[in-house]
Each structure stands twice: as C-alpha cells, then as structure tokens.
Amino acid sequence: MFGAPSEQEWLDDITRAYGEIPNFINLIGKISLEELPWAISKMDCYIASDSGNIYIADAVGVPVVVLFGPCCHYEQRPLGNVLLIGNDDNINSYVFETRYYFSQPKEELFAVTEESLHQLKLFISTLQTARTTEHAIDAQGN
C-alpha cells in the first residue's frame, strides 16, 4: 500500500475492520515519489482506483486492476494488461468536463458486484498461471 503519511488512518480503519492481511506490505509515508516506479515494478499485479499510480504500473509493465468510479474509462485508462471493474451506468465525469460532486453515494460509485469479483479472480488466476509457467521455463533453462 502506498500513500502520504496522512493516509495511514484509512489503513488503520481497514485493519480494525478486517484484521491483519497476510503478505501485505505497508509503504504509506515510507517511499518517495521518485522511488515509486521501482517499487511498483516489483509487483505481480497493481490494484487501485483510477489514480496516477495505475499509469505508473502500466508504464513499467505490471498488470493493473482498475476500480473505476464516475470517471469515463473510455477516455483515459491504462492500455496494457488491464482489468476494468466498475459500473458504466455511473459514468458522468469526463476528462475535459470534470465534476467534483456526484449525485450517487460513494458506495454506489465504487460498488463491486459478484461478476466483478469473478472477473478479478479469473484475471489474477491467469497471472498466476503465467508466472508459474515462466518459472518452470526459467528452471529448465538453468
């Protein structure tokens, strides 16, 4: 998890609600913006809302899962190995017509459906299969 030091309280809320998360690395407030591309490049997959970091992940070749809200992902999105999760019915913010307030509550704008969860599991499973195959090929070559 990346973020400014002020975002630690949000992670604390998540930890209180769901408990400790295995294999979770907290880099909130511990890494500079200049170090971020290197850290992201070490990931197997980057999952985030539509924010600047998804474009860094895409640029360094890391598969991306984008949880989009009201922004129009047809106008602007990563172009590499990407899974888009969101509700097209809620799109009402466009690159050149940005709005800051929306009629829908945040729970509706960023809702994750059973179909979205299925797509996410399939996407990650495909990444794991590709990684296992890659490791097997590397082992044969050594």
Key words describing this protein structure:
mainly alpha, 3-stranded parallel beta sheet, LPS_LOS_Heptosyltrfase, 5 helices, Glyco_trans_9, 142 residues
The amount of beta strand, in percent, is 5-15%
Gap from first CA to last CA: 34 Å
Taking strands numbered 1, 2, ... along the chain, how are they ordered across the largest sheet?
1-2-3
Helix content: 40-55%
Average pLDDT metric: 82
Shape: globular
Uncertain spans = none
Give a brief rundown of this model:
With 142 residues, the protein is mostly helical.
Structure notes:
The protein has 142 residues and is mainly α. It has a domain of 98 residues. Helix content is 40%, strand content 8%. The protein has a three-stranded parallel β-sheet, sandwiched between helices. Helix 3 links the parallel strand 1 and strand 2. The chain starts with 7 loop residues before the first helix and ends with a helix. The model has no long low-confidence stretch (mean pLDDT 82). This is Lipopolysaccharide core biosynthesis protein.
How are the elements arranged and paired?
Layout: H1 8-18, H2 36-41, E1 46-49, H3 52-59, E2 64-67, E3 82-85, H4 106-109, H5 114-141
Parallel strand pairs: 1-2, 2-3
